[in-house]
Design brief:
InterPro entries: Ferritin-like (IPR012347), Ferritin-like_SF (IPR009078), tRNA-Hydrxlase_MiaE (IPR010386). This is tRNA-(Ms[2]io[6]A)-hydroxylase. This protein is an all-alpha fold. 72% of the residues lie in helices and 0% in strands. The protein contains seven helices and no strands. α2 runs antiparallel to α3 (49-75), α5 packs antiparallel against α6 and α5 crosses α7 (167-182). The two termini are 22 Å apart.
Length: 193
């Protein structure tokens, strides 16, 4: 369903499990950034009532995910820690093409869909490969949610695209670019690292 061109090596889960405090802290910050992204998109297109309503739900769900991750961190006697830089996301951000307002919004939707797709895939890798059963179950649940967000952002891109903007073609370009970017990652205990 995700159509990612380069799957994560399952051994990345071993790296992540080697420092669960770090992966959970990074994950918590990813959820906060996803919340902020949904809110920023609402600011960009308030006149689209149905999309704004869906984005509001996504923002609430992402914030709920942050709270769940934070609760796990606290239950294990750890603290959240400082925000982590997400080089993967920064690399993807540079791929967005400039254009008019509508074009930028569609690019932003594809950018968000790409992040959700990789996060979903990483959550599946974690749920299938880590020995910590509580976290395996937790990541399986989140994987389903992230897949839903991925689909929503792609649908928004199709809905908002102006005539002449080929979303399917552009999405293929995103998938190709992301495959090149992700080759540099998968070596650290971060969700996208």
């Amino acid at each position: 369903m995700l159509r990612l061109k380069l799957p994560t090596d399952p051994r990345w889960a071993n790296i992540a499990e080697g420092n669960l405090e770090e992966i959970l802290t990074d994950h918590a910050w990813c959820e906060l950034k996803a919340t902020s992204n949904a809110i920023m998109l609402i600011n960009m297109l308030p006149e689209f009532t149905e999309i704004t309503t869906e984005l509001t739900s996504i923002a609430k769900e992402e914030m709920d995910h942050f709270e769940q991750v934070h609760e796990i961190i606290k239950a294990r006697g750890w603290v959240l820690g400082r925000e982590r830089k997400d080089s993967y996301v920064n690399d993807l951000f540079k791929f967005m093409k400039p254009g008019n307002r509508k074009h930028l919004i569609v690019e932003r939707m594809l950018f968000a869909a790409m992040i959700e797709a990789r996060s979903c895939e990483r959550f599946k890798v974690l749920s299938d490969n880590i020995k910590d059963q509580e976290l395996a179950d937790f990541y399986r649940e989140l994987m389903i949610s992230e897949a839903s967000h991925y689909t929503s952002f792609l649908n928004f891109a199709h809905e908002l695209a102006e005539e002449g903007y080929d979303v399917k073609k552009r999405w293929e370009e995103w998938l190709e670019f992301e495959a090149k970017v992700i080759q540099s990652y998968g070596k650290s205990e971060t969700i996208h690292g």
